[in-house]
């Protein structure tokens, strides 16, 4: 019985390459390919795959938000992040969202296939560089901004540019109401009273937009 996989990635050549390689494996079958997170959420419902191979940065809806929606609908879903990004604002929110694995696109094809098998069999899979990041975080005192989601970090960087809520909404292709919610969450998590203090915090912690 084959491991059913859905690939979610906005680059067509990545999807084609992954699909071609995985489908020649005796025990893996790619049942669907999605070009963004919204479609990935729908395909997760439609195909009920054993493993979802998820990119992070995509148009419309990113991998973290898609993972959250998929897992809210099906807490047993097994999501393996496959991305080029290794920054804290991607790694930790993805794992916090419930992804069972996080590997890089620089991985060998055989490593990706083996990671799918491990996720399917209930193992957590992390690249060595991700494990190192987790160890480094465990060895330092927590920061208030550690609790910000990836989208909230984006909004904070937009705030640091001096943009209004409407300008942020336009930049990030989200609604004004959503921006206001994110800003409120940011102020609460950073324990500050207003946008100016949030920007000062971002500057002090080197997370503001340069």
TrEMBL record:
One GO MF term: DNA binding
Domain spans labelled HTH luxR-type: 141-206
PANTHER family named among the record's database cross-references: TRANSCRIPTIONAL REGULATORY PROTEIN YDFI, TWO-COMPONENT RESPONSE REGULATOR
Keyword field: DNA-binding, Phosphoprotein, Transcription, Transcription regulation
Response regulatory domain location: 4-120
InterPro entries to which the protein is assigned, alphabetical: CheY-like_superfamily (IPR011006), NreC/VraR/RcsB-like_REC (IPR058245), Sig_transdc_resp-reg_C-effctor (IPR016032), Sig_transdc_resp-reg_receiver (IPR001789), Tscrpt_reg_LuxR_C (IPR000792), WalR-like (IPR039420)
Matching PROSITE patterns: HTH_LUXR_1 (PS00622), HTH_LUXR_2 (PS50043), RESPONSE_REGULATORY (PS50110)
Coiled-coil blocks: none
Sequence positions bearing 4-aspartylphosphate: 55
Single GO biological process annotation from the record: phosphorelay signal transduction system
Protein name in the entry: DNA-binding response regulator
């Amino acid at each position: 019985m084959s491991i059913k996989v859905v690939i979610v990635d906005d680059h067509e050549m990545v999807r084609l390459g992954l699909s071609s390689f995985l489908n020649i494996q005796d025990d893996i079958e790619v049942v669907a390919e999605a070009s963004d997170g919204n479609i990935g959420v729908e395909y997760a419902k439609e195909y009920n795959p054993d493993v979802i191979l998820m990119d992070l940065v995509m148009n419309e809806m990113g991998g973290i938000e898609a993972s959250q929606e998929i897992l809210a609908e099906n807490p047993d879903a097994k999501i393996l992040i496959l991305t080029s990004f290794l920054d804290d604002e991607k790694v930790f929110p993805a794992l916090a969202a419930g992804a069972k694995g996080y590997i890089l696109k620089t991985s060998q094809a055989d490593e990706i296939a083996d990671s799918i098998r491990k996720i399917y069999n209930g193992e957590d899979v992390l690249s060595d560089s991700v494990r190192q990041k987790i160890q480094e975080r465990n060895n330092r005192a927590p920061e208030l901004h550690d609790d910000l989601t990836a989208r909230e970090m984006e909004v904070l960087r937009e705030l640091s540019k001096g943009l209004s809520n409407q300008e942020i909404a336009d930049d990030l292709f989200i609604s004004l109401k959503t921006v206001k919610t994110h800003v409120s969450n940011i102020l609460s998590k950073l324990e500050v009273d207003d946008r100016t203090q949030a920007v000062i915090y971002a500057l002090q912690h080197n997370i503001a937009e340069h």
